[in-house]
Design goal:
Elements: H1 2-18, H2 22-34, H3 41-59, E1 63-69, E2 76-82, H4 89-92, H5 99-105, E3 111-113, H6 127-131, E4 136-143, E5 148-156, H7 164-190
Antiparallel strand pairs: 1-2, 1-5, 3-4, 4-5
Helix pairs in contact: 1-2, 1-7, 2-3, 2-7, 3-7
């Protein structure tokens, strides 16, 4: 019931902001199916990859990453990487992000990363991602409890600013993914 209410509220918020665009509504309806407590975590992540592909297209982002806490440990790992070149292994390592991912993990709002106009370098993104041609990023925390579930990252190679609609969509998807993972964990703990 809690899951259904959260999803219904998210759908209503998105409808208000986007004029009920069909592609966004269909995407959020897919997320509704993820939020059922009996869905195994592996299936949630598998379906999340498909959802991320759609969001990536809607945001005109060239790549998408999903970082999650590795079990109960403080370690984090990339569990979904969409459309990164095969040589991007080092760029996926959580350590290349320095404090940027930590900032997002502890935040309740998305973080938009863009090149510093006063510098010729793309200081905001980790150097391995800059070396791959990425210039802009949108980091959305997966947060349903005080403890973050993970971070959803969208990357772009073209100069652009993330619009309010972009950050709202990214954060809505992050919120619903967090809710799905949290609900699944609660269900597993109750068994």
């Amino acid at each position: 019931k809690e899951v259904e209410e959260a999803i219904t509220k998210a759908l209503a918020r998105r409808a208000e902001r986007t004029g009920a665009q069909q592609d966004i509504r269909a995407l959020l309806e897919q997320l509704r199916t993820l939020a059922h407590s009996t869905t195994p975590a592996s299936e949630i992540l598998s379906r999340a990859a498909g959802v991320l592909a759609q969001v990536q297209h809607l945001l005109a982002a060239e790549a998408a990453l999903l970082y999650l806490r590795d079990g109960s440990a403080a370690a984090w790992r990339c569990v979904v990487a969409r459309d990164l070149p095969p040589i991007a292994g080092e760029a996926l390592d959580i350590r290349v992000w320095g404090t940027l991912l930590q900032q997002t993990i502890t935040s309740t709002h998305p973080l938009s990363l863009q090149p510093d106009p006063s510098s010729s370098a793309t200081a905001a993104l980790p150097l391995p991602l800059v070396a791959l041609g990425y210039t802009h990023g949108l980091l959305c925390p997966l947060r349903i409890t005080p403890q973050s579930e993970g971070v959803l990252v969208f990357l772009a190679t073209t100069a652009r600013a993330w619009r309010d609609e972009d950050t709202a969509l990214g954060q809505t998807v992050a919120d619903l993914l967090a809710l799905s993972l949290h609900t699944q964990r609660r269900y597993q703990a109750s068994r």
